[in-house]
Each structure stands twice: as structure tokens, then as C-alpha cells.
Amino acid sequence: MAVTLQVLYPVGDGTTFDHTYYATTHMELVDQHMGPHIASVQASKGLAGGPDVPAPFHAIATITFADQEAMGVAMKEAGPVMADIANFTNIQPQILIGEIYG
């Protein structure tokens, strides 16, 4: 069954996030190192949390894998991707692994 890895970068006091670097350099690293095992990837820039509500996240990436095994293989090759996080943000990202059911 398909699974997702969601990486969430919450907004908080003093948090920084370089969207240009993330969209170009970091996502290219994701493709280079994890790409052969990824079914699809989507990244969203946070704009709002509702009408007149600031965005709770700077960005959220959703990476879809065919199954848990594909995600496991990709994660074994994700070292350079993880090491790059400090180059575009000072945030410790939140992670959600999910099973697609709809």
C-alpha cells in the first residue's frame, strides 16, 4: 500500500526559511538521492491558515512511495538531504508518515 512522508516546517518565533533555496537546491537533492524510490513529490509554501490567519507552516513537503519498503530504501539514501536542512532553515521539521487510504 502507498505511503507518504510529510515534512512540515512550523512557523514560530525566530524561525527562518529560505524558500528559493528550498525549491531549487534542496528539492534537487531530494530528487538526486531519493528520487528513484519516490512515486511523487509535492512541496507547498504556506500562505495562510484560513481567512485572516497567518500560515502555521513555512512549507510542507509530501513525498509518496509505492510502499513502506520503497520509503525505507529512500531513507537509507537520504543522508545528504537531511544534512542540507541547516542550509535553508533553523527549524527542526515535524515528520508524519502516513498510509494513503483515499
Largest beta-sheet characterization: 4 strands, antiparallel
Supply Rg: 14 Å
Shape descriptor = globular
The topology string of helices and strands comes to: EHEEHHE
Kindly report the spatial arrangement of strands forming the biggest sheet. 2-3-1-4
Mean pLDDT: 97
Query: Runs with pLDDT <50, length 5+?
Result: none
| Individual helix count | 3
Percent strand equals: 25-35%
* Strand segment count: 4
Q: What class, by secondary structure content?
A: alpha+beta
Q: Helix share of residues?
A: 25-40%
Note the gap between the termini. 11 Å
Summarize the helices and strands and which ones pair or pack.
Layout lengths: L2 E8 L8 H16 L5 E6 L11 E9 L2 H9 L2 H6 L9 E6 L3
Antiparallel strand pairs: 1-3, 1-4, 2-3
What labels would you give this structure?
about 100 residues; alpha+beta
